Fold this protein.
Amino acid sequence: MFFLDELNPQQREAVLYTEAPLLVLAGAGSGKTRVITYKIAYLVKELDVPEENILGVTFTNKAAGEMKSRVAKLLQKEVSDVWLGTFHSTAVKILRRYGPYVGINNNFSILDEDDQTTLIKEVISELNLDIKRYPPGSFIEKISRAKESLIDPVTYGEFVESYYESIVAKVYQKYQEKLIQNQALDFDDLLMYLVKLFRENDKILSYYQNKFRYILVDEYQDTNYAQYVIVFLLAQAHRRLTVVGDDDQAIYSWRGADIRNILEFEKDFPGAKVIRLEQNYRSTQNILGAANKVIANNKFRKGKNLWTDNEIGSKIKLYIAKDEIAEANFVAREIILLQKRENLNFGDFAVFYRTHAQSRALEEAMIKNGIPYRIIGGIKFYQRKEIKDILAYLRFLVNQYDGISLKRIINTPRRGIGDATLSKIIDYANEKGINYLDAMKHLVEKGELGKKASKEVEKFIELIESLIAYSKLHSVEDLIIEVLDKTGYIKELSELQTATAQMRIENVEELISVAKEYSRQSEDLTLESFLNYISLMSDIDTLEEENSSVVLMTIHSAKGLEFPVVFMTGMEEGVFPHSLSMGEREELEEERRLCYVGMTRAKRYLYLTSAEIRTLYGHTNSNELSRFVKEIPEEYIEPVTKAEVTFERGEKVWHSRWGEGVIQEVRPLEDGETELVVVFNDIGKKHLLAKYAGLEKL
Ligand code: ATP
Ligand code: MG
């Protein structure tokens, strides 16, 4: 087993301990994810465990994909039968098969937050609630928390404690009815129905207990109650369960994650072994030391000893800018300098922020300095109107109960089917308990629609039926092209001849590439499985392995990742820690864990930046330096001051647009300014004012 040599003794012990419950509780960068990867490879290669008997659960689809390719590398063969995915993707796979046992069709639709909001808004208006007093978002959150705790609407109703909760109960009830009508599941339903399926069907549960003889879960500290129950139910019989996690990296309690799952693992699985990994392989001594100091301020933690024998490394650079624009410019310039000096790729740099709103200034600085960048979660491709429209067509072709999709497409592009006709169709279908396609057919046959409407609906039925037939025989990419063509979607856009319309066309074309890429990579080429894939895509999953652009993201989405250079921006009280989380000790500790997660993503260089004055959400504030920065002892930090630089003849300089050059002359001017004559390698001689040229010394 040559690859076992690539593990330290504790990691190896964790890999070899296969037949009983095991918790690997260890700090950042200590190889927890590596243990899971190597263990899967070990099970297959050494213990001859058939691939289909292994279930690996990771936090994102991207992480699952990476794990799959690492395992394949270790085994030097493809691994296609190990179930590797998130809790949600695992649930979808099982429910597509056994959904009818819990009252849902196999071809259910999966709603995103946008669709949820639409449904909740409908409920709000049907219950005659004032949307201003009851914003949909807070219902969505309440319902989500309830579902994660496996509380159904009826149970919720029984335990209401306030007037507001009684309203939530009503909304929840009605929302759930609508989901069922639409044969649609939201994200939390995926888990809740899976638990229901397991709890109510012994045979199915024991089938999966036998199937998944080995279960491995990464990032266990961020599981919620529903996920905990799923693991518990599946692993209870054979107890061959490995979970890995770090209590110091629990950062999703605001989304229902419960740190007790990891802290009480030994209670849930009596006799469980606990292995601690103490060597960090990721970061320099300085970075790790500073991160350890910060997290030591938390009271609610198990406490651990994490060390590294990596190099001491540079000190952590702290830069306090005048405002957020100066901060962003600093980040951009440091990236350029460091990239040149250390011969790094832009893909080696990550810039973090606490909330998305902070990204704008950073983005602008990247553009201004000509730095290629990607932003995670900023522009949501799958939230764009045109993409949602086309996907709604595809969804309706699969699930004709999906009224949410029907509403999107019935008059897109415009075909003169009005709201009145649509309501008739919906009411009729709901009344008869039939799907919307059949409802439309009945109404047309019975002549219950106006003459013009009837004709249009008939055409629409034909369109849908022909597309359904087409979908059975063709690939997803061809189907998308057919949808675009037969519906006249592209035609309508091209006739507009505006820049926005052009961008929409390009996005739709991008969707075709997504389908192509999908069919290249996956085994199940059905339309259903393509739609699953899209629905389960999270922001971070779109982060491609590439080395040519800087990545901008929230600290939350950086979990589990690592980068040679990390910038943590907005290190200010009220920004980070976030103003909403500064009151309660527990919330503050979660912020501090988030800070620990952020710092420990860095391998070689870590920058902390802040602004004296920041405009965010339209308000201008002057914030104090973040307490997290103050918690780092001085010896780890090197403040960066960007004093006005003076140039000398013969010095090498760098300009963001013109690249490298040499100072040929320095000329003091009468007004006190300095003029520089610079000879750039690419474009030759330029006369510049020193103060404004934005030159960096090399
Ligand atoms: P996090 O807490 O951030 O999720 P982790 O504990 O999962 O971190 P890994 O991502 O598995 O840690 O490992 C961190 C880095 O250290 C990776 O680059 C990994 O390849 C490397 N690494 C881990 N263990 C070893 C080892 N024994 N020898 C060499 N490199 C290692
Ligand atoms: Mg990890």
Residues 652-697 form one domain. The mean pLDDT is 91. The pocket of magnesium ion (ligand 2) is lined by residues 32-33, 218, 560 (CB under 6 Å).
